[in-house]
Specification:
The longest helix has about 55 residues. Helix 1 runs parallel beside helix 4. The chain has 2 domains: about 130 residues, no CATH class; about 55 residues, no CATH class. It is an all-alpha fold. It is built from 5 helices and no strands. The two termini are about 80 Å apart.
Length: about 190
């Protein structure tokens, strides 16, 4: 929880950047993180065991309460209550430990992304301050001219294709009509 508080504390940008760059690039921290991942695997196994034990103790307690025993012993009830409490405690502790590990990991990567985004923003702010310069205006004008010329060529090409298909259809019609008038029948038609 202390680590989480340090990660989300409102530190100055320079300190936060140094801290997170150290945490993300240090070989020692990487080895510690690897060891923690292995320990969280063991905590996950303990969580599964605690969960299973909690269900088993709860079932035993319910069976003892619904049993056909006429008189319940106070010590037995206390024993079942204590075992149930310990099983639930262990389940909650290991579950919260696993949940906190997920929260810490995600928070660390969110903060790392925030720092990288702030760096990119600072670079963009230095390069042009978001203001369009004269050079970029010239480039935009040139690109618009090229786009207009390309669109005009595309229109001309589409018109040419349309005219060619119309002329081909008219030629086929006239050739068929000519063959009918002269009596020449040919099966050599090209489609």
């Amino acid at each position: 929880m202390v680590t989480f508080c340090v990660l989300v504390s409102p530190l100055p940008y320079a300190i936060r950047k140094k801290l997170f760059s150290f945490l993300s690039e240090s070989a020692i921290v990487a080895k510690i993180a690897y060891a923690l991942k292995i320990s969280f695997i063991f905590v996950a196994i303990l969580f599964a065991d605690a969960l299973q034990r909690m269900f088993r103790v709860t079932a035993e307690s319910d069976m003892a309460k619904t049993g056909k025993q006429g008189v319940q012993d106070v010590r037995t009830d206390t024993n079942f209550a204590a075992r149930k409490f310990y099983a639930q405690r262990n389940t909650y502790l290991t579950g919260f430990c696993l949940f906190l590990s997920l929260v810490l990991t995600r928070t660390f990567y969110i903060m790392l992304d925030l720092i990288h985004t702030q760096e990119e923003y600072a670079k963009l702010k230095k390069t042009g301050n978001g203001v369009v310069t004269a050079d970029s205006n010239k480039e935009v004008a040139e690109l618009k001219k090229k786009l207009a010329a390309y669109e005009a060529k595309e229109r001309d090409f589409d018109t040419l294709k349309k005219q060619a298909s119309q002329q081909s259809a008219e030629y086929d019609r006239l050739a068929t009509k000519y063959n009918e008038i002269t009596g020449n029948v040919s099966n050599k038609r090209v489609d």
